[in-house]
Amino acid sequence: MNDKLINPKNVKAQQFVQTYSFMSGIKKFREKGKEAAIDEVKQLHDRIVLRPIRIEDMTQLEKERAMESLIFLTEKRDGRLKGRMCANGSTQQEYTNRDETATPTAMTESILITGTIDAKQKRDIMTADIPNAFVQTPVDKQKVGERIIMKIRGLMVDILVEMAPEIYADYVVIENGKKVLYVIMLKALYGMLQSAMLYYNKFRRDIETIGFKVNPFDPCVANRIVNGKQHTVVWHVDDLKSSHVDPKVNDEFLKWLENKYASDNVGKINAVRGKRHDYLAMWLDYTEEGVLQVDMRPYVKSMIEDFPEKIGTSQNPWTEKLFQTDDKSKKLEKKKAKDFHIFL
């Protein structure tokens, strides 16, 4: 990268967030971990993301295709602990059309080109992220046989039943000695293959209603004319960048975003204004008038520091572990092993 694009001043290294499986997180954080999980499940319940269904009301195909639920605990950079419930959507790959899941994201070139235009035209810049974007997005397929079913097990079942016994208690079944709750997905959830595409379509429709036209070369860039000047929005899933020469246009756009996507139940829009923006692992710096300075060194540094293996130089593209085997490791399932080929 050209040195002119790098701002060496006031750089703080970004740190990766630490994510734990639910059981590992509970062992590490104990009651604090359980509280984070409860908060996450409560949010999904309050937002009516899922609805319980009796096992006899599902088709055989829906039972076979039911996704497993997962929950992770994430320790944020500021020390906060957050639960994240998601679906194991890998089972959807066998029967889901790729066109329903291949979601466009903003090209790096688009971010840099629009950023350069922002600098040259001295635009006001706003970056923002939509809170809980997926779970604000309705799932459109609700016909019998086409519904998206998720299977919740163990402690998560207990949390839901304790939270709203009148809704969930009668739907709990026992499978292999464990409590199981089947639910219909009413809104998108992280992990579902369709979630990102559902949200993309929703966000695109929403901004088109207020005059934006999507760029024919990048479907994650859109423009409209406000007060005779161009208003540009670039978005990468739920992270967006908005720019216009008049700061009041961004003020009004932020109000629109808040009315559309923010609430006490969902969360606030986290918006940043000013000359420096931490956007998609890049620092976009507009401190020098008319110039965009881009710096990814903190991100690269954090990757090197947090990488589980020691990073150095090598004379060969392999390590001493290449031919080591672990006799105690779990064998591949027959179905996966059939498609797994090793060439010697």
* Main sheet overview: 7 strands, mixed
Shape: globular
Structural classification: alpha+beta
Tally of strands: 16
Keywords: Nucleotidyltransferase, RNA-directed DNA polymerase, Transferase
InterPro entries: RVT_2
GO molecular function: RNA-directed DNA polymerase activity
Protein name: Reverse transcriptase RNA-dependent DNA polymerase
Commentary on this structure:
The structure is a single chain. By secondary structure, the protein is α+β, with helices and mostly antiparallel strands. It has one domain. It contains ten helices and 16 strands. The strands form three sheets. Strands 1, 2, 3, 4, 6, 7 and 8 form a seven-stranded mixed β-sheet that branches. It has a six-stranded antiparallel β-sheet with strand order 9-10-11-12-5-13, with helices on both faces. A hairpin with a 2-residue loop joins β7 (173-175) and β8 (178-185). α1 (22-29) crosses α2 (31-46) and α2 (31-46) packs across α5. Residues 1-16 have low confidence and may be disordered.
